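Morning run. Coffee first, then this:
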Amino acid sequence: MFAYNDRNGPLLSCFKRKRSSDMMEKHEKADMKKVNPFRIARYVLSAHELKQLPKDRGIEVAIAGRSNAGKSSAINTFTDQKTLARTSKTPGRTQQIVIFELDADRRIADLPGYGYAKVPAKLRAHWRAIMERYFQTRGCLRGVVLVMDIRHPMREFDQQMLAWCEASGTSCHILLTKADKLKRGPAQSTLLKVRRDLPAIASIQVFSASKKTGLDELVDKLSDWYEYDDKQG
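And here it is:
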């Protein structure tokens, strides 16, 4: 009976083909994991009252933060769209709940920017009441991305938003934005300091929209919340 070995070829050739096939499969799986499912996000509506929101079903993730913390830039970065969320040099432009749709059962809710002095007191009071009811009653709310400028974290309104998340049992992922404004040492120090006092429902990371720092980590977190598996895009 003919003996196959590395010298006479057939066995080695078969092994090489198998190894090549395994490596290609591994790379294909890695590429699928890198697919960003949020590129398909599209604007649906803007709501001034909760009754104007889409039906309370499916999965909704809210993006919240101070008006000048880089919230719109963060949305545009993780959706890989330059103008999906409107950025402005005038903080406080987002004064409604803006809904972006991923599919019939998945949505992004861009909450009004809060804490900016030029927003009228009456409007601030209105949105404070709306936000409290939103957290208390929105059953489809899966998680909140809480955007904070890494140089000025955990201001009063940030703490209020985190408290609403904790009270409603809603997961909160803190995004310390504008990390490119600090050197690595101070950025990591701020991360550790804020993380130390967080409740169990919260996680945290550093992020830079301009440098794409932390983008993969954010996409992974959102993909978990939206229940995307590796094969979905």
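Confidence is low (pLDDT under 50) at residues 27-33. Good start to the day.
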